[in-house]
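Appendix B, Record 12. Input sequence as logged:
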Amino acid sequence: MPATVSLEKVVDEIELLLSDEWTAYLNRRTGELYTVTVEMADAADDPDDSSVEDWLQEELPKVREILESDDWLALPTKFDLHEYQIMKAFSHAHADEGQREQLLEAISGRGAFRFFKSLVHRWGIQQQWYDYRDREIERIVADWLDVQGIPYEK
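Logged structural output:
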């Protein structure tokens, strides 16, 4: 039976991972969250542990369990969240028509994230943006948990 997980904790775990060098995992039975670095995963794949640093040596059994067990699921990455699509939806939903058009223009082409965020800050609507983004990420993560059959609480 899957454990009930905290939606907020899963979202927080995903948002902490700013690098491709990390993958967060969720144990579907216990609800435990654990982050594995590329270095940890590479060491776990190597059957010879003798040259591994002491701190990593202690982590290897857990990392191997995570990588080999069907109970552990890799959480969606920032790339799975499609922040561009969230910016686009926010822009379309924005009430002020002139700002809406400028936001949509800002996200077309190179530097989309930078231009979009610059406009949001210039207009003082960054809290609206962050609230919208947070709700969308929470919805995406909730949908992912539903697909995985993992119950959650807010």
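Strands lie at 5-6, 22-27, 33-37, 72-74, 152-153.
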